[in-house]
Structures are given as structure tokens and as C-alpha cells.
Amino acid sequence: xxxxTVGTVAFDSIETPYGKAxxxxxxxxxxxxxxxxxxxxxxxxVSIIGADFPPEELQAMEDRGVDLRxxxxxxxxxTFFWAGKYHTNMNQRDTLVTDLNVLDDFNPILPExxxxxxxxxxxxxxxxxxxxxxxxxxxxxxxxALDTMNFWMDIALDKLIEVISRIDVLTINxxxxxxxxxxxxxxxxxxxxxAMGPKYLVIKKGEHGALLFxxxxxxxxxxxxxxxxxxxxGAGDTFAGGFMGYLAKSNDVTFSNMKKxxxxxxxxxxxxxxxxxxxxxxxxxxxxxxxxxxxxRALTHY
Amino acid sequence: xxxxTVGTVAFDSIETPYGKAxxxxxxxxxxxxxxxxxxxxxxxxVSIIGADFPPEELQAMEDRGVDLRxxxxxxxxxTFFWAGKYHTNMNQRDTLVTDLNVLDDFNPILPExxxxxxxxxxxxxxxxxxxxxxxxxxxxxxxxALDTMNFWMDIALDKLIEVISRIDVLTINxxxxxxxxxxxxxxxxxxxxxAMGPKYLVIKKGEHGALLFxxxxxxxxxxxxxxxxxxxxGAGDTFAGGFMGYLAKSNDVTFSNMKKxxxxxxxxxxxxxxxxxxxxxxxxxxxxxxxxxxxxRALTHY
Lengths: 302, 302
Hints:
The structure is a homodimer of 302-residue chains. Chain A is of the alpha/beta class and 302 residues long. Helix content of chain A is 37%, strand content 26%. The first copy, chain A, has helices spanning 28-36, 55-63, 127-136, 150-155, 157-164, 174-181, 186-195, 235-250, 255-272, 279-282, 286-300, and strands at residues 3-6, 10-16, 19-26, 43-50, 66-74, 81-86, 93-99, 119-122, 143-147, 169-173, 200-204, 210-214, 217-221. Chain A starts with a strand and ends with a helix.
């Protein structure tokens, strides 16, 4: 099966209690693609960057089986840039800089063969752009997942609800699920969000793990407790990439397989936070991933 | 095996977004004893109340196998009273009233046969009183668990550390684990707390579940997502009672059995929060408890 990932490819500057990283590779689509690359090929990437993006980083993605024909390179533009600072509580961060740059002109055009990708992961973007991608798909997708955030609920709720009605899996955090549904209880929030369209709801809770809801069924995956969470940037996107990659590889969207996919995503996210940027995600071995999955089993099974 | 529970038996007045309950039965020892009563007999209770405590409530506890010979009744005193109000986020509450009343004179004297209780649960009390109980035990205990809170870390840290060095299982919440250890990472906090004495550390995270640490091993149990958390008062004590009751019943303190005990405690806590006070804990059937345990398995196993 093939996986289409649409979202940002970016530069980040990050400060955490453990150190600083300036102008490193970031972006939801980058993290998600690396995570999924351990499971499925091809990964059809759709994004936009400027001429400042290092060619060797593109090569590294291609070497991992990421198809970059859908990546637009604006020769006169600069790549999307985000700078942020995390506090001791890594669940909280301040955004210092957001330079949209080329992202302001993002007008995703899918190469013809991308349109029949069976699995689709729409990263956090304006609901208009997410809709534009949905409109280009051939309609035979097995599963479409969409990530969004409170910002779009604040300024583009109607369009967001329209887009959400067309997808299968919504991934948001707990506060966003409460905002979108108007319900404090996540169980009640899930019911209301199911009624908006998505058969599956993934609620990401950062260091407190993730919940999967579908038609009265619930599954919970913890985050792996780590001695040091070095940099949480991209953890949610890595999780989503691992989750969708696992489903695409197994071509099985039953609830019981989704549970395994959630664990796989959590395992990949646990690697992501151990180093800055995509450093840890670039060269994982099968043994490392298997050992990490064993840790999750020990952590949750009794 | 027998279980000794020492702690408060109290009146509570509680306000939650779902309603109000005035002058209802509360207290850590009450909740813990009810939870454990589904597993083990006798439960040797040590606490203090005033003449205002309803005799029928004492009878109800005795009917569930709770031995009240260690319960001091001050004929001229009033029972400990706590009033609190919860916000929409049930993890936060305001204490409105704390009337220590008879608790101010609590001087626990263990009946002779209580001193050889194999399992001991020391509820949140002044470290001095907790020490007084430890001093009376015969020294042949299988497992001693102790609950405490940030308040004692603020005002009686030295004495608390002395008491902690003498017990096997410490149960605190995540912020308290951070305060006690000076480490933000819970993995590092656990290492430091193990070095203080307790072989086991249980970190309670409310709606985000609980973590069990022991010598490099970690287990995580989620809280059951519920449509309505009616009243969280006593959930932590119910959890501790279910946990220790399970261990006492099985007389097995291996890590793998502790995992099951954590799940049992979580299941009992999930009942506790469904109604005010001890209402839901008074008359559970074996079938209800089994069905709840099945829900935990579905929630966590893959």
C-alpha cells in the first residue's frame, strides 16, 4: 500500500532545558515521513520548501523511500521557519517566531499517481488546503487521517468541520477535543466528534499518552517514561506517521489492528524526543524498534 | 493475610459540576477499607472519630469485614471534616474547610493482634503519627505502603524522609514525586526515591492513570475514561485500598503481581468516582468488578 503525507517541511530553532538547536530540519511532514519510512514504501510526500533547504536532506529522505515528486521547491523563496522554547514542563512551549515564507503560497498539486494513494495523512494546515488535497484524491482511499489544531477551530471552524466530515481518523490533543466538541469528558467528546464524521478519534496527550476511540471502543497507549525528554518537537507528527505507516503496511483498518498501530506510533515518538530534530529518526535499526516495542508491552501488559 | 489500614475516617461536603453532597462519609481509611473489603478479611482499621459519626455507618463497615477495634470514638469530640469544591477540570479543587476536630488528638494505639498484620497501608497523616504506627508493628510485615502529600514535604520533610526510609511502597502524585526528588523526569525521580528506601514507587496521575516503578521496571495503568466523573474524592485512597487488598489476598509481592494489583486498584477507583462519597463502593457485585476488569484489559491489551 502507499501512503500520502501532506504537510510542512521546515526549519526549526528550538530551545529546551537540555540545550539549543538552531535552524535544524523540522516540519510535520518530515517527521511523519521518516516514521512511516520504517514500514511502507513509497511515501508520497506533498509539501513546499525554498531554495535554502539542503539538498543532502532531500537525498536522505529519498534514500529512505520518500517520493519527493510532490515537493515544490520555490527557487526564490525561503522555507517555513518556526522557533520555540520549551519550559521544564515539556508539555508547555512558547512560540518565538513563525515565518510562513513559502508556506503562504502553498497550493498543493498531487502528481497523478499520488491521487490513488490508499492511505492519506493530512498534516496540520489551513482547512482550505486540506480540502484542496481531498478534492484531488480519486475517492478510493482506505483511510484518511487528518491532524489539526485549536488555531483553526478559533478562526475557521465552519470550514474545518466541513473537512472533518470527509475523513476517517481525526488526531487532536485533549484540549482541542474539548474545544471542538464542547464536552469536558473525553468519552462524550468522542461521541460528538464521531457524529461529525470521523469513525476514529485519536486524542494525543503528550507525556500522558494517547487514546483511540471508535464507536464505543476505547484503547489507551501510554507514552514511554524516559529519563530525558530532550526535545518533544515533532513527537505528535512522528506518532501519526508511525500509526499510518503501520496501517498502510498491514492494510488492515480493524480496531484491533489500530491498537497495534497506536503502539507503533508511540514507540516511534519515544525515539523522536530523545534527540533534537529528526536526528534519532534517521537511522533506526529493526532491532532498536523491536526492543522499544517490547518495552511498551512490558509497560502495559499484565 | 490481614491488612492494616491507618488513616482518616471523616465527613466531607463536596461540590462538583454535577451536584452537591453535604456532610457525607469520607476519609482515606474509609475509602481504602471499602475497596479492600472485596478482597481480604480482616481489615484492621485504625482511626479516630467523634460521637457524631452515624452508628449505622460503622455497622456497614463491620458487615463488610472491617475490624473496628482500632477505631477510637471520642465521646466529646467531633469527627474530622473536610469541604471542597471541584472545577470543570476535576484534577483541580479548592479546599473550603478543614476542621481537624478529633484528628488533632489522634494517638493511634494498635490492638495487640493488629501488630502482626502482614500488609499495612499508612494513609496520609503527619509523619509523626505514621512513625508511631511503624514503631508498634512487630517487624514481620510483608509489605508496608505509605501515602503522603506535598504539605508534609513543605513543613516536615526531615521526619517524612525518616519514615519513608522504613517503608516498601510510596504512593504520591507526579508533582509530589518531583518535589520530593528534585527531578522533573519521573524516571529520574523514581531512582532517587528508591534510594531513599522504598523498593516500589506508585505515582498517581488522576485522570492520566498511575505508574509503578521498581528497580528499573516500569508499569503503567490508565484511568478508565468515563462519560461522567461525578466526584473524584477518595479515588486515590480507593486505588490504594484495592492495590493493597489485592496483594494481601494473593500474598504475592512480585512485580508481575503488583501490575495486576495496580489494575485492580484502578478498577476500584473507577467505581469510586461514579457517585458521591462511598455510595458506589458499598455494594458492588463480583460480576460488576469482573466486567470492569475486562474493560481495563480491552483498554490496554493489544
